[in-house]
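Feature request disguised as a bug: please show the residue count (221) next to Cyclopentanone 1,2-monooxygenase (CPMO) in the output. Example input:
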Amino acid sequence: MGKRVAVIGAGVSGLTSIKACLDEGFEPTCFERSCDIGGLWRFTETVEKGRASIYKSVVTNTSKEMSCFSDFPMPDHFPNYMHNSKFLEYLRLYAKCFDLLKYIRFKTPVIQVEKSKDYLTTGQWVVVTQNEDRQESSIFDAVMICIGHQIEAYIPPLECFPGFEKFKGSYLHSQSYKKPDIFQGKTVVVIGMGNSAADIAVELCHWAKKVVLQHKGGSPG
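Example output, currently without the count:
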Protein backbone atom coordinates (compact mmCIF):
# COMPACT_ATOMS: atom_id res chain seq x y z
CA MET A 1 0.00 0.00 0.00
CA GLY A 2 1.27 3.49 -0.89
CA LYS A 3 1.90 6.28 1.56
CA ARG A 4 -1.12 7.96 3.11
CA VAL A 5 -1.57 11.61 2.13
CA ALA A 6 -3.97 14.11 3.68
CA VAL A 7 -5.30 16.68 1.21
CA ILE A 8 -6.94 19.71 2.85
CA GLY A 9 -9.51 21.35 0.60
CA ALA A 10 -11.46 20.13 -2.44
CA GLY A 11 -11.07 23.09 -4.76
CA VAL A 12 -8.94 23.25 -7.90
CA SER A 13 -5.68 22.41 -6.11
CA GLY A 14 -7.27 19.80 -3.88
CA LEU A 15 -8.85 17.88 -6.75
CA THR A 16 -5.66 17.87 -8.81
CA SER A 17 -3.68 16.84 -5.72
CA ILE A 18 -5.94 13.84 -5.17
CA LYS A 19 -5.41 12.74 -8.76
CA ALA A 20 -1.65 13.32 -8.56
CA CYS A 21 -1.49 11.13 -5.45
CA LEU A 22 -3.40 8.36 -7.22
CA ASP A 23 -1.11 8.62 -10.24
CA GLU A 24 1.89 8.10 -7.95
CA GLY A 25 0.36 5.15 -6.12
CA PHE A 26 -0.35 7.04 -2.89
CA GLU A 27 -3.49 6.75 -0.76
CA PRO A 28 -5.16 10.19 -0.53
CA THR A 29 -7.84 11.32 1.89
CA CYS A 30 -9.26 14.77 1.21
CA PHE A 31 -10.92 16.80 3.96
CA GLU A 32 -13.38 19.47 2.82
CA ARG A 33 -15.07 21.72 5.38
CA SER A 34 -18.08 22.49 3.16
CA CYS A 35 -20.61 20.17 1.59
CA ASP A 36 -19.30 20.29 -1.97
CA ILE A 37 -16.27 20.61 -4.21
CA GLY A 38 -15.18 23.72 -6.08
CA GLY A 39 -13.62 25.93 -3.43
CA LEU A 40 -13.39 29.48 -4.73
CA TRP A 41 -15.40 28.62 -7.84
CA ARG A 42 -18.56 27.53 -6.05
CA PHE A 43 -20.66 30.67 -5.64
CA THR A 44 -22.74 31.07 -2.49
CA GLU A 45 -25.15 33.86 -1.60
CA THR A 46 -23.29 34.53 1.64
CA VAL A 47 -19.65 34.45 2.72
CA GLU A 48 -18.76 31.15 4.36
CA LYS A 49 -16.15 31.06 7.11
CA GLY A 50 -12.89 29.49 6.05
CA ARG A 51 -13.69 29.55 2.33
CA ALA A 52 -12.82 32.01 -0.40
CA SER A 53 -15.75 33.92 -1.86
CA ILE A 54 -16.71 35.24 -5.30
CA TYR A 55 -19.47 37.47 -6.61
CA LYS A 56 -22.26 36.15 -8.79
CA SER A 57 -21.05 37.60 -12.10
CA VAL A 58 -17.42 36.40 -11.94
CA VAL A 59 -16.04 35.20 -15.27
CA THR A 60 -12.60 33.65 -15.79
CA ASN A 61 -9.96 36.12 -16.96
CA THR A 62 -7.96 33.45 -18.78
CA SER A 63 -9.17 31.43 -21.77
CA LYS A 64 -10.44 27.89 -21.39
CA GLU A 65 -7.31 26.60 -23.14
CA MET A 66 -5.15 28.31 -20.51
CA SER A 67 -7.46 27.39 -17.61
CA CYS A 68 -7.92 23.67 -18.21
CA PHE A 69 -5.83 20.85 -16.78
CA SER A 70 -3.29 19.28 -19.13
CA ASP A 71 -4.89 15.84 -18.84
CA PHE A 72 -8.50 17.01 -19.17
CA PRO A 73 -9.32 19.55 -21.94
CA MET A 74 -12.38 21.76 -21.67
CA PRO A 75 -15.42 20.54 -23.63
CA ASP A 76 -15.57 22.08 -27.10
CA HIS A 77 -18.97 23.66 -26.49
CA PHE A 78 -17.78 25.59 -23.40
CA PRO A 79 -17.32 29.35 -23.98
CA ASN A 80 -13.78 30.67 -24.27
CA TYR A 81 -14.18 32.73 -21.08
CA MET A 82 -16.42 31.01 -18.57
CA HIS A 83 -18.88 32.15 -15.97
CA ASN A 84 -18.00 30.72 -12.55
CA SER A 85 -20.88 28.24 -12.77
CA LYS A 86 -19.43 26.84 -16.00
CA PHE A 87 -15.98 26.45 -14.47
CA LEU A 88 -17.54 24.63 -11.51
CA GLU A 89 -19.26 22.34 -14.00
CA TYR A 90 -15.82 21.62 -15.50
CA LEU A 91 -14.48 20.70 -12.05
CA ARG A 92 -17.41 18.31 -11.55
CA LEU A 93 -16.67 16.67 -14.90
CA TYR A 94 -13.01 16.33 -13.89
CA ALA A 95 -13.87 14.77 -10.52
CA LYS A 96 -16.31 12.35 -12.14
CA CYS A 97 -13.92 11.36 -14.94
CA PHE A 98 -11.17 10.36 -12.52
CA ASP A 99 -13.52 9.09 -9.78
CA LEU A 100 -12.19 11.52 -7.15
CA LEU A 101 -15.28 12.06 -5.00
CA LYS A 102 -14.87 8.80 -3.12
CA TYR A 103 -11.64 10.12 -1.60
CA ILE A 104 -13.28 13.26 -0.17
CA ARG A 105 -14.76 13.59 3.31
CA PHE A 106 -17.20 16.50 3.22
CA LYS A 107 -18.24 18.65 6.18
CA THR A 108 -14.98 17.67 7.87
CA PRO A 109 -12.82 20.70 8.69
CA VAL A 110 -9.22 20.19 9.72
CA ILE A 111 -8.60 21.95 13.03
CA GLN A 112 -4.98 20.96 13.67
CA VAL A 113 -1.93 19.57 11.89
CA GLU A 114 1.18 18.71 13.84
CA LYS A 115 4.24 16.50 13.64
CA SER A 116 3.86 13.05 15.14
CA LYS A 117 5.81 12.20 18.28
CA ASP A 118 8.17 10.02 16.23
CA TYR A 119 8.38 12.50 13.34
CA LEU A 120 12.20 12.47 13.29
CA THR A 121 12.19 8.78 12.40
CA THR A 122 8.89 8.43 10.48
CA GLY A 123 8.28 11.88 8.98
CA GLN A 124 4.59 11.43 9.74
CA TRP A 125 1.92 13.97 10.66
CA VAL A 126 -1.11 13.98 12.95
CA VAL A 127 -4.21 15.50 11.37
CA VAL A 128 -7.11 16.35 13.68
CA THR A 129 -10.55 16.83 12.12
CA GLN A 130 -13.91 17.94 13.47
CA ASN A 131 -17.07 16.15 12.41
CA GLU A 132 -20.09 17.65 14.19
CA ASP A 133 -19.33 17.16 17.90
CA ARG A 134 -16.62 14.56 17.42
CA GLN A 135 -12.89 15.04 16.88
CA GLU A 136 -10.77 12.45 15.13
CA SER A 137 -6.98 12.10 14.85
CA SER A 138 -5.33 10.32 11.94
CA ILE A 139 -1.73 9.65 10.99
CA PHE A 140 -0.49 10.55 7.50
CA ASP A 141 2.85 10.31 5.74
CA ALA A 142 2.36 13.70 4.09
CA VAL A 143 -0.05 16.64 4.13
CA MET A 144 -1.03 18.81 1.16
CA ILE A 145 -2.64 22.12 2.13
CA CYS A 146 -4.94 23.24 -0.69
CA ILE A 147 -7.07 25.95 0.88
CA GLY A 148 -6.06 28.84 -1.37
CA HIS A 149 -4.75 32.24 -0.32
CA GLN A 150 -7.90 34.39 -0.42
CA ILE A 151 -9.75 33.15 2.63
CA GLU A 152 -9.24 36.13 4.93
CA ALA A 153 -10.30 39.60 3.84
CA TYR A 154 -7.76 42.30 4.67
CA ILE A 155 -9.17 45.70 5.57
CA PRO A 156 -6.62 48.34 6.66
CA PRO A 157 -7.26 49.93 10.07
CA LEU A 158 -9.84 52.68 9.69
CA GLU A 159 -7.28 55.06 11.19
CA CYS A 160 -5.55 54.88 7.80
CA PHE A 161 -8.44 56.92 6.41
CA PRO A 162 -8.55 60.27 8.26
CA GLY A 163 -12.09 61.48 8.78
CA PHE A 164 -13.64 58.07 8.16
CA GLU A 165 -15.40 58.24 11.52
CA LYS A 166 -17.61 60.95 10.00
CA PHE A 167 -18.65 58.76 7.08
CA LYS A 168 -22.35 57.87 7.35
CA GLY A 169 -22.50 55.34 4.54
CA SER A 170 -21.68 51.63 4.48
CA TYR A 171 -18.43 49.92 3.50
CA LEU A 172 -17.39 46.37 2.69
CA HIS A 173 -14.49 44.33 1.39
CA SER A 174 -14.75 42.90 -2.11
CA GLN A 175 -14.89 39.45 -0.55
CA SER A 176 -18.35 40.34 0.80
CA TYR A 177 -19.57 41.73 -2.54
CA LYS A 178 -22.13 39.44 -4.15
CA LYS A 179 -24.54 41.45 -6.34
CA PRO A 180 -24.67 45.05 -7.60
CA ASP A 181 -28.35 45.81 -7.00
CA ILE A 182 -27.85 46.99 -3.40
CA PHE A 183 -25.83 49.92 -4.79
CA GLN A 184 -28.55 51.14 -7.14
CA GLY A 185 -28.67 54.94 -7.25
CA LYS A 186 -25.74 55.36 -4.84
CA THR A 187 -22.35 57.02 -5.12
CA VAL A 188 -19.64 54.37 -4.71
CA VAL A 189 -15.88 54.59 -4.23
CA VAL A 190 -13.92 51.46 -5.17
CA ILE A 191 -10.45 51.45 -3.60
CA GLY A 192 -7.81 49.54 -5.52
CA MET A 193 -7.22 48.66 -9.17
CA GLY A 194 -6.68 44.92 -9.17
CA ASN A 195 -8.82 42.42 -11.07
CA SER A 196 -11.68 42.42 -8.58
CA ALA A 197 -11.73 46.19 -8.11
CA ALA A 198 -11.84 46.96 -11.84
CA ASP A 199 -14.38 44.23 -12.51
CA ILE A 200 -16.70 45.35 -9.72
CA ALA A 201 -16.38 49.01 -10.70
CA VAL A 202 -17.46 48.22 -14.27
CA GLU A 203 -20.43 46.22 -13.03
CA LEU A 204 -21.50 48.94 -10.60
CA CYS A 205 -21.54 51.51 -13.40
CA HIS A 206 -24.78 49.94 -14.60
CA TRP A 207 -26.43 50.37 -11.20
CA ALA A 208 -24.88 53.15 -9.15
CA LYS A 209 -25.43 56.87 -9.68
CA LYS A 210 -21.67 57.44 -9.70
CA VAL A 211 -18.62 55.20 -9.39
CA VAL A 212 -15.13 56.45 -8.50
CA LEU A 213 -12.20 54.05 -8.91
CA GLN A 214 -9.34 55.12 -6.65
CA HIS A 215 -5.79 53.76 -6.53
CA LYS A 216 -2.84 55.24 -4.65
CA GLY A 217 -0.31 54.27 -7.30
CA GLY A 218 -2.20 55.46 -10.34
CA SER A 219 -3.17 53.30 -13.27
CA PRO A 220 -0.99 50.19 -13.72
CA GLY A 221 -1.03 50.91 -17.46
